[in-house]
UniProtKB/TrEMBL annotation:
<dbReference type="InterPro" id="IPR024072">
    <property type="entry name" value="DHFR-like_dom_sf"/>
</dbReference>
<feature type="domain" description="Bacterial bifunctional deaminase-reductase C-terminal">
    <location>
        <begin position="2"/>
        <end position="180"/>
    </location>
</feature>
<dbReference type="GO" id="GO:0008703">
    <property type="term" value="F:5-amino-6-(5-phosphoribosylamino)uracil reductase activity"/>
</dbReference>
<dbReference type="Pfam" id="PF01872">
    <property type="entry name" value="RibD_C"/>
</dbReference>
<dbReference type="InterPro" id="IPR002734">
    <property type="entry name" value="RibDG_C"/>
</dbReference>
<dbReference type="GO" id="GO:0009231">
    <property type="term" value="P:riboflavin biosynthetic process"/>
</dbReference>
<protein>
    <submittedName>
        <fullName>Dihydrofolate reductase</fullName>
    </submittedName>
</protein>
<dbReference type="InterPro" id="IPR050765">
    <property type="entry name" value="Riboflavin_Biosynth_HTPR"/>
</dbReference>
C-alpha cells in the first residue's frame, strides 16, 4: 500500500504558517532545493488542499519557462507538470484541471482507493487544513518536516485536536547550512 507522507516546513514552536498564512520565515536555498528535489523527483503523486493547490497552480506550470528561471524553478516546474495531483476540496471542479483529481467527499474511502493503486508514496505538500483532516482520519503515514530556526509565537499549528497519541519512529535527520533541520518520521503503528 502506498504511504501518505506530509511534507511541511515548521517553526521550532510547531507552526506551519503565521497567523495570516505568512510563510516569509521559511528558509530555502539551493542546498535544500537539491535535497528535496531528489526525493520528490521519485514521486508520481502530490496531494494538496485547495488553497495550496491554487497557490501552486498559479506559479509552477510556467515557472520553468520564464527567462529568469532558476535551476530549481526549471526542475520543479517540469516535475509539477508531470506529477498527478490530488486536491482535497468541496468547491473546485475537476473538469478544467490538468492531470488533477479532486476529492470532495468520502475522503477516507477515496484516499484508501488511491493508496491501493500502483505507484510511489503520495506526498502531501503544505496544506495545513488538509493535513489536519487526514491526521484525524489516521491517513498520514509519515512526516517529512523541515524545522526552521525560528519561534513564531503564534500562527497555524501543524497539530490540532489530537485525541490520542501518535507514535513516530525517526528514520533520518539532516542539518542544512541555513540552520534548517530535516526530521523524517514514519508513524509507528502496531
Amino acid at each position: 500500500m502506498r504511504k501518505i507522507i506530509s511534507f511541511m516546513h515548521i517553526s521550532l514552536d510547531g507552526f506551519v504558517a503565521g497567523p495570516n498564512g505568512e510563510m516569509d520565515w521559511i528558509k530555502v536555498d539551493e542546498e535544500l532545493f537539491d535535497h528535496v528535489g531528489k526525493r520528490i523527483g521519485e514521486g508520481d503523486t502530490a496531494l494538496y488542499g485547495r488553497v495550496t493547490y491554487q497557490m501552486m497552480e498559479s506559479y509552477w506550470p510556467s515557472a520553468g519557462s520564464e527567462p529568469d528561471a532558476s535551476k530549481h524553478d526549471i526542475e520543479h516546474s517540469k516535475w509539477y507538470n508531470q506529477v498527478h495531483k490530488l486536491v482535497l476540496s468541496k468547491t473546485l471542479k475537476e473538469a478544467d484541471l490538468n492531470n488533477t483529481t479532486v476529492i470532495s467527499d468520502n475522503l477516507s474511502d477515496r484516499i484508501n482507493e488511491i493508496r491501493q493503486q500502483e505507484g510511489s508514496d503520495i506526498l502531501l505538500f503544505g496544506s495545513p487544513t488538509a493535513t489536519h483532516s487526514l491526521i484525524q482520519l489516521k491517513l498520514i503515514d509519515g512526516y517529512w518536516l523541515f524545522v526552521n530556526p525560528i519561534i513564531l509565537g503564534q500562527g497555524i499549528p501543524l497539530f490540532v485536536d489530537i485525541k490520542e497519541k501518535i507514535k513516530l519512529k525517526l528514520l533520518t535527520t539532516r542539518q542544512f547550512t541555513s540552520g534548517v533541520t530535516e526530521l523524517n518520521y514514519i508513524v509507528d503503528r502496531p
